[in-house]
Amino acid sequence: MGMPSTLSSFSASCAPVRRCAALAVGAPEPEQSRIVNAPATLRLDRASRRLAGREVVRALDLDLARGEVLGLLGVNGAGKTTTLRMIAGVLAPTSGSVRLDGADLYEQPELARRRIGYLPETPPLHAELTTTEFLRFCARLHGLARSKVAAAIDRTLERCELGEVRHRLIGALSKGFRQRIGLAQAIVHDPELIVLDEPASGLDPVQALKLRELVRGLKADHAVVLSTHVLPDVSACCDRVAILHRGELRHVGATQAPADRGAVRVGVTRSLQADDWRALPMVVSAAPIDATHWRVHLQADVAIDAFAAAVVARGFGLTEVHADVPVLEQTFMAIAAGDASARAA
Amino acid sequence: MSVAALIARHEWRRLVVQPFAWTLAAVVVALMAWQFLLALQAFLDLAPKLGGLKDAPGATDLVAIPLLRSFSNLLVLLVPLVTMRTFAGERRAQTLPLLLASGAGNARIVLGKYVGALGYVLLLIVLVVAMPLALGFGTTLDLGKIAAAMLGLMLFAAALAAIGIACSAWTAQPALAAAAAIAISALLAVVDAGARAQGIDSGGINYLALPTHLEPFCRGLVGSVDLVYFVLLACVALTLATRRLDALRSRPD
User: Fold this and answer.
1) How many helices and strands (H and E) does chain B possess?
2) Nearest-CB residue to A88 (from B1, B13, B101)
3) Residues in B touching A56 (Cβ below 8 Å)
């Protein structure tokens, strides 16, 4: 069976990655099809990085196309920041390559100038300058023509909602504004690839929500890689997720796996067997999560209230039923616990 | 505008919007103005006695050149304070990735930082040289000698700035960068002191010393050997800074 086109751009060099591909079985959405048709903007080809005698990132294969947002997940020390630094051109890979439209980033470092925007974990801001002064420097540093700088700054200030602080010193601004200026410096030159390391770090919930909207908006014209610890951010912003663990790519998959959209998580009081669930006409399969919770896959177009009514009628002791969305969380937790293969397949 | 020129201009801008640069400039100008006035008073006291002498030294030899020679000693302390934050400050504030990720190239980044910092030091030199030049309204100055001394001072400052940049690239602590640069510069200033005390003034050790190559400029002599020495010293230091930046791309700090 051919792999869905959504997955065709994924690297298949790692066994765990192949296993995870099963998560995305199902018809790709129109938007995902568009993503696949776009040529890969970024390609990591067995990129590895040793630091202080330790291989922090091992043989990483990853593709990313314009119009796509890739979330990079991993526990602390998994190699996320090192990976992003390699992608941004700050850190050279020990072996392998990082390619931008087929050109090696370290053989042609000037490529990074116009085509990559990078927001490190700590926004690199010059506190003694005003927002506009700083963005003007960043735009020129990234090779934007002098005649285009003013328009680019206005556009970026508007996009990041920084108009009210355009003439204020960066050092006097709040954490939220600084984070947004950090994002603004990464996009002011309209790069093809935007690399964001923990962009929501330190933001309050309202600011984090706005940031999600902004990242989603960026996806229209850019390829975006972002790392975060916040799983809802990944679900909300990203088309795909890559999970790193101990420097290895353990999972690459769609953020919302289509096959799991028909699954519900059901809480019951009675002790049941899988056959009890399959006796219901709308159930395709069921698997236990724990003693009182089941993941139940329903047939297409089954109304949830009809399913709930059937469960109640059977006297299963229904306590809860909701969409089984936290697949990503389960995968992440399983990998973090070192149990990657069992859950990711 | 090239990337190096852009970074230089940005460095200059960052420097002049901070109180540190203005305070430093004010202290330097005040200190040198005080020395200038002392030297001028001494010259005025001595002037009646010099009138009868043949080829008597004038204001250039007794006021201008000693002032610039004294300023060269101050530069050994001053320049590292200007350069200490160029890279160490960026690393401490974690802002260096902005430049590293820009694709500007390490040599251009170093050159831009260097030119930006040196521009400020050169401005201080111009301010100090302007003091003895003001005497031109009341007396005749040897402008050629003053120009040579100013050129020597600028080359001297260029070498010190390059040493300061290299030290700043080597550590993430600006104070440590300044201390290291002062130590190296001071060492190069006195490296031949022992030899000179024993009457040796043309040995290899003398060639290494900074004052050996500044002194001819102060006497009005512009020699290619001295010029090459300062340029070579600056190039070596800037190359080391570039190499250090190359190494930083291999480290996670």
Assistant:
1) 13, 0
2) B101
3) 252
Q: pTM to 2 decimals? A: 0.78
What is the tens place of the pLDDT at every residue in B135-189? 988 888 899 999 999 999 999 999 999 999 999 999 999 999 999 999 999 999 9
User: Domain range for residue B138?
Assistant: 3-248
Does residue B38 lie within any of the structural domains? yes
User: Lowest-confidence range among A33-47, A223-237, A313-327, B221-235?
Assistant: A33-47
Same domain flag for A133 and A277 = no
- The domain tally of chain A equals 2
A92 touches chain B (CB under 8 A): yes
Do A228 and A210 sit in the same domain of this protein?
A: yes
Q: Any chain A CB within 8 A of the CB of B249?
A: yes
Strand ordering across the sheet containing A54-65: A54-65, A40-51, A95-100, A103-104
B196 and A CB contact within 8 Å: no
SS3 for B131-160 is HHHHHHHCCCCCHHHHHHHHHHHHHHHHHH
In a shared domain, residues A248 and A278: no
For residue A19, what is the domain's CATH number? 3.40.50.300
**CB contact, 8 Å: A137 with chain B?**
yes
- What domain range is A316 assigned to? 259-324
Nearest CA in chain A to B245: A90
Q: What is the DSSP letter of B27?
A: H
